Amino acid sequence: MVHCTVQVVSMESVDADIVVVPVFESELSSPRLTTLNTIFGGYLKSAVAGSGFKGKETDQLTLYSLGKMRASQVVLIGLGKKSKFDTDGLRKAAGEVAKKAKTLKHVAWILEAGPKGLAQEGIASAVTEGFVMGGYRFDRYKKGDKDKGRGDVSLTLCVADPSDLNGLEVMVKRGQLLGESTNLARDLANTPPNDMMPDHFVKVAKGLFKKTSVEIEIIDQKKAAHYGMGAFLGVAQGSKSDAYILIIRHRPKKGAAPIVLVGKGVTFDSGGISIKPGKAMSDMKADMSGAAAVLSAMNVIVKLGADINVTAIMPLTENMPSGGALRPGDVVTAMNGKTIEIINTDAEGRLILGDALAYAVREENAAKIVDIATLTGACSVAIGDLAAGVLGNHQSLIDELIKVGRETGEWLWQLPLFDGYLDYLKSDTADIANASEAGKAGTCTGAKFLEQFVGSTHWAHLDIASVMKCPNTKGYMVKGMSGAGARLLAEWVMAQAAKVI
Ligand code: BES
Ligand code: MN
Ligand code: ZN
User: Fold this and answer.
1) Could you say which ligand is closest to the alpha carbon of residue 447?
2) DSSP strand pairing (259-263 vs 310-319)
3) Closest ligand to 376 CA?
4) Is 414 inside any structural domain?
5) 127 with 200, same domain?
6) In the predicted model, is pLDDT for residue 149 greater than 70?
7) Ordered DSSP codes for 45-113
8) Which entry of 276, 338, 362, 474 is annotated as an active-site residue?
9) Are residue 16 and residue 103 in the same domain, yes or no?
């Protein structure tokens, strides 16, 4: 657990194990460092000069205060060039510091307004987010790890002016919830697939919203059949575990059409009869990362009281091969009446999302829809792991998402949704095929398939297959499943709410 607070306190008198002082590149004679140098009796300047610390993005310098301050250590942390600075730099720096908090339990962070008019509030939220995310570990299944369980850690943001306190406390709360929700999405995706089955995901969701006024509805397979969700049921039929569509409704405003968030929740994707090769197949436990992002974003939206109607829809199922599984060549009928020829049972995400999107349009009367899914391996081929793909039928919605992506550090890159891609999905037998035989433009054809289920409703699709997993621990990223999309969706929804908290 991380405890985050704001205090009006000076560097020398804050009660902590370490005091973190952020420093911009080549700004070594700032008022902050001059004060610190005086506290250290002039020794700081020569220590910095001798160390090679310049304030570059990854620079860190630890100094022992030797009784000159209440905290035993001061850490100068580089933020890079002031002209290039953004809030994500702060998140990364705070994420690095959080790793030190494994041994040092109490961290104080000296806060001040940033360049380019960046308010202290935004900085407070970003530092808190980065710190909470950077300290994440998934060690629930490591029974013999001596290092296990970090216990409680505290982060104190230190400010000079008492009049700032209220606004900052709100932003720290917000940052903490955003960070914790990303960690929740990571937990859900990292959990082994024999424990994270659809019923368990539902249980977690119910626990999360127990003390809130949200409405939770669960569509089981019987009810799904009643709605005619043949595509969703087709995927589910190969698995021994029950499949569900989990729906969460946040309705602070009477009568207004909701924003609908749809998340792919395949709790394990073996590929089905079109079975995947063995290499890294275990990563497919995280094929419910879209649903995890939606649930986690909902946690923020509801708990910060965003004044806007939102519905979350999470189709949850395994994709397994069995005697009862969907076959290549089978034809299923989706909720919107479209017949789909199954070319490849590994293109299962679009099948369950197709029904979920049709439901969002017909039953939820969606004002606009954003879906998020680990949909195609082709997305990594196209853009690597530096961004997720975004496609859709409404450019200003896409632009909004791209902007929020930049601010949250969850970059999006737009890919085309040309009409011609529909030709790739022509079927000789049914209205549409679930995959193209040629396999060209995989991410675009995946999105083109989904577009067939949204009608004229404004819609954007986020393909997070490329960013599902962090290859290593760096900044606020922790090796393992990334929790991608939770903060992005939460911030995008909150940007449209008239009032938050
Ligand atoms: N869940 C996978 C996509 C994926 C791959 C996510 C790697 C994360 C990492 C998806 O269901 C899938 O198998 N897609 C196929 C689509 C193809 C059969 C048209 C793919 O990407 O190969
Ligand atoms: Mn698949
Ligand atoms: Zn999948």
Assistant:
1) 1
2) parallel
3) 1
4) yes
5) no
6) no
7) HHHHHHHT----TT-EEEEE-TTSSSSSEEEEEE---GGG--HHHHHHHHHHHHHHTTT--EEEEE---
8) 276
9) yes
Spot the catalytic one: 303, 350, 368, 448: 350
In this prediction, residue 148 carries a pLDDT of 64
The rounded radius of gyration (Å) of the Cα atoms in the chain is 24
pLDDT in tens, 258-294: 999 999 999 999 999 999 999 999 999 999 999 999 9
Choose the final residue of a domain: 112, 134, 161.
161
268 CA to middle of ligand 2, Å? 9
Same domain, 77 and 198: no
With a 6 A CB cut-off, is 437 part of the ligand 1 pocket? no
* Amino acid at position 279, single letter: K
* 378 and 323 within one domain: yes
In this structure, the answer to whether residues 289 and 406 fall within a common structural domain is yes
pTM over 0.90: yes
- Tell me what percent of the residues of the chain surpass a pLDDT of 70: 99
For residue 174, is it within any domain?
no
As a whole number, mean pLDDT of residues 387-408 equals: 98
Catalytic residue status for 276: yes
Is the CB–ligand 1 distance for residue 265 below 6 Å? Answer: no
